[in-house]
């Protein structure tokens, strides 16, 4: 089945018992990114044109777009290739900060790229000044601390074989 079939199977949308309540509920931002590695295990980082820190490929979901679909779309836009996106590694809640609403950041397994695939990457200059494969320790000085924590958890999830939940890059038990 596809999404349209699934929506049709749901039936009529639920009616509001208290008119207007849905429009008063908070809205969360959602993002999907990919943990992409080279054969040496280094992570692919982009140097975005729109912020001063490194980031992994991916981005914000558009209206009515899933985090997975946003990740796939952003990889195509940023890297110029349709790359397979694998399993979920981390869901991280990010608190509101400055002008930004709170968000859910999803990190998916972007797999390991061969040298031939890496050679075919075409970084969109409107999206990023460049890209490089770095270890997490090499990248850490150029990352927001919360992203470094989130990526540490994503690497742990690869080893653990199951996704992890985090609050601002920390597991709730920390």
UniProtKB/TrEMBL annotation:
Bias type Basic and acidic residues, positions: 1-17
Alphabetized PROSITE patterns for the sequence: NUDIX, NUDIX_BOX
Residue span, Nudix hydrolase domain: 26-157
InterPro entries in the record: NUDIX_hydrolase-like_dom_sf, NUDIX_hydrolase_CS, NUDIX_hydrolase_dom
CDD domains in alphabetical order: NUDIX_Hydrolase
Keywords: Hydrolase, Magnesium
Superkingdom, taxonomy of origin: Bacteria
Chain positions covered by the region annotation Disordered: 1-26
Cofactor: Mg(2+)
Protein name in UniProt: ADP-ribose pyrophosphatase YjhB (NUDIX family)
Record-level Gene Ontology MF annotations: hydrolase activity
């Amino acid at each position: 089945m596809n999404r349209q079939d699934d929506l049709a199977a749901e039936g009529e949308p639920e009616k509001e018992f208290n008119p207007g309540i849905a429009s008063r509920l908070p809205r969360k931002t959602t993002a999907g990114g990919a943990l992409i590695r080279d054969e040496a295990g280094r992570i692919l980082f982009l140097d975005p044109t729109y912020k001063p820190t490194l980031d992994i490929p991916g981005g914000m979901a558009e209206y009515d777009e899933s985090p997975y679909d946003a990740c796939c779309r952003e990889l195509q836009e940023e890297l110029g290739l349709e790359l397979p996106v694998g399993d979920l590694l981390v869901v991280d809640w990010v608190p509101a900060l400055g002008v930004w609403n709170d968000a859910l950041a999803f990190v998916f397994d972007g797999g390991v790229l061969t040298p031939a695939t890496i050679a075919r990457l075409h970084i969109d200059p409107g999206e990023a000044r460049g890209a490089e494969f770095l270890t997490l320790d090499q990248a850490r000085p150029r990352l927001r601390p919360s992203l470094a924590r989130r990526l540490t958890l994503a690497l742990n999830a690869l080893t653990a074989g199951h996704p992890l939940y985090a609050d601002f890059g920390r597991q709730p038990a920390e």
